[in-house]
Amino acid sequence: xxxxxxxxxxxxxxxxxxxxxxxxxxxxxxxxxxxxxxxxxxxxxxxxxxxxxxxxxxxxxxxxxxxxxxxxxxxxxxxxxxxxxxxxxxxxxxxxxxxxxxxxxxxxxxxxxxxxxxxxxxxxxxxxxxxxxxxxxxxxxxxxxxxxxxxxxxxxxxxxxxxxxxxxxxxxxxxxxxxxxxxxxxxxxxxxxxx
Amino acid sequence: xxxxxxxxxxxxxxxxxxxxxxxxxxxxxxxxxxxxxxxxxxxxxxxxxxxxxxxxxxxxxxx
Lengths: 195, 63
Known about the structure:
The structure holds 2 protein chains of 2 kinds. By secondary structure, chain A is mainly α. Helix content of chain A is 61%, strand content 4%. Chain A is built from 9 helices and 2 strands, in the order ααααααββααα. In chain A, β1 (118-121) and β2 form a beta hairpin. Chain B has helices at 18-22, 48-52, and strands spanning 4-8, 28-31, 35-38, 58-62. By secondary structure, chain B is α+β, with helices and mostly antiparallel strands.
């Protein structure tokens, strides 16, 4: 039985486009906030994970690369990555890094530091990214946030691609901070006592 | 001969929905965004969900 393709099965195109656009104009990075707010709003309002289940373009991209393009070795993830402490720990780490990024944006906003036209990969490697931004286009903090946010998106995609290759295509879903967060919200909404 | 059915370990399920997409019988749903649930009456034990599950939360059991 072949499943009907729905409009949302093509959202991977937007995810791919988002990553590409960041190479041309970093300000497109702001659009990534949609991937932050939509799953949160869906889980808070509807109490489900239909974002992960249906609309997540990144998940679709990984299954496309892993299954259709056969780039995945399809091996099981190591047990520690599947454990709760790793998932919650990674969420906590991710949130800390997110707030550091917000703080860096604030520093630029307040004038305490200058705009850095760089994308930080894996929270460590600073890659010059001045080719995607013309100085003075927007207020510096708006550009700083774009660089910071794109760093997060590119880093998580990179991690996702690495685990897609070595493990199952959507291995990223296991430790995706948004997925962990929305699952926690759904749990809280459903009440812990209920089965 | 006992039939094989998918059994989901709710404790490690991340509710990502990979299994929903591959299930040819629509025998799986995500319960309130917390974990996946199978309908034993619909499950034919094909194992596609277990193969796709990134958390390896699905096992095929004979009951």
